[in-house]
């Protein structure tokens, strides 16, 4: 088969006939599909199909006997039923596939049952709902926004992702990364800027999805991601220390915060500090509680009582945030009723559901009015960095719980874009999938994305009926919830594996970490990507070239030089220098040099010119240079610049015959 490009060809069985210049087939049946390049394979037609790199062709049947589903209307010619080979007929075959791919709910909804799926989704949805409420309020505080913005960000995406989401585990809503990125990009300009950032994030993600730009995420490597996540976790935890300790600090940087903390160390509130640290310890203990083993390891071997106790322990551990927050809220209510508050309570939360309206394209801050362009300008690089990080966070989560299955990155971008876009109409800040809630979802046994519907309903109920009571939640308790969650985002465990495998990966990791921590988060990730690209370009420009002297069974010596990758313009001069130097020193300007091109999959014009110059160097000193294992496409590129001579061998036998000829010619010359 020819090289795969971007066409989908199909084969049809049947007798061909012609009517008024149109081709028809009798007794037609679509046999199957293949991916080909622009040259049609024998027996296959290549007319109407286009596919993307994300398409999974395994869903195409090897045989498709229902002609009326895929072919145009039949005609009767001479008593035989014939069907025209029509472009639109094949396009209709793809329509259902694309529809099912872009609306994943159509795949699982017809098979949905209460017994197999419904109960599991209900349990998971409610559990995640109880987890997201305290997190949403706390993340709004991290973003520097009113508490209700966190709740507004937590329900609409659940419904949208149920329709468009391709993975069952992600629980979309506010996350620690999105909260801190929102705070750093809205510059304390108010909720309107956060809502607009959510809207722009959705638009950018949809554009990336439709334009198949998911490959951009691949430029954020594991070391860069680990460095950024670790720095973000420390920045988030640091920002919450003021509420945990009950002091008023305003600082725009990590170093500035610690400087302010040292100045206000005597203002620490005993009540807030005691409550905050106690809550954090309790949260960490409850988190560890789920590891307690009751009875045998295998659930099948446990008694009913042991399974019940294990389930209760798991539920308490999973719902630890809501348990601590509710207990502290009750404590806050009691103290407030008696008029003696030892700690600070949360600010007022607006009750009721938000109205569904377009995001603000104009905002008034103080005495200054900003239009859409000015607001977008204020958001700066956030309009690109936030969408990318949101995609990275969600796709990483989807891959983590995919159990080895392929994650459709394009569909996830489209789903996430739709979630952000529609959520902005209810006053949301940028959202993504949270690893902590995804873990709860997975552990709760969620079966489909319908679990998000129950999560959304829980948040709506909280907004409608319980917001008056949220004011009693102590700020120290919310700070403890955040710190206890983000402390595990610091990825110290990746340092040793990086040191053991490839030490150079520590450079972008630590550069990203330090720049994110000491300057700004988006600066850190840009610096990390830039360093990775520089390392990548360096390895491209300086390929490894293996030089080895070999001896044939006939006794003559020759050098084998093997580059480990393709020849492109940054590397050609380096490879030329290495080959020439090896030919002079190790080859003594006379021993034949064999350039093994097995790893060279492609070349460009500059590489061809470099090879031509290399051949000229060897011709001038009358030293044989033979190219071996060269791909036909590479041969045509090298020959396109018309080198003086181009000695190429395809098989090992041809190579040894040519080397033998060089050897005998040299012996005759020496004899004369």
TrEMBL record:
Pfam families cross-referenced by the UniProt entry: Sulfate_transp (PF00916)
Task: Alphabetically list the UniProt keywords.
Answer: Membrane, Transmembrane, Transmembrane helix
UniProt keyword annotation of Membrane present: yes
Which cellular components does GO assign to this protein? Answer: membrane
> Looking at the keywords, is Ligase present?
no
Q: Which residue range or ranges hold the SLC26A/SulP transporter domain?
A: 120-511
Task: Please state where this protein is localized.
Answer: Membrane
Q: Which domain of life is it from?
A: Eukaryota
Membrane topology, as annotated, equals: Multi-pass membrane protein
GO BP terms = transmembrane transport
Listed transmembrane segments: 193-217, 268-286, 312-335, 379-401, 413-431, 451-471, 476-495, 507-540
Q: Report the protein name in the record.
A: SLC26A/SulP transporter domain-containing protein
Q: Which organism is it from?
A: Macrosiphum euphorbiae (potato aphid)
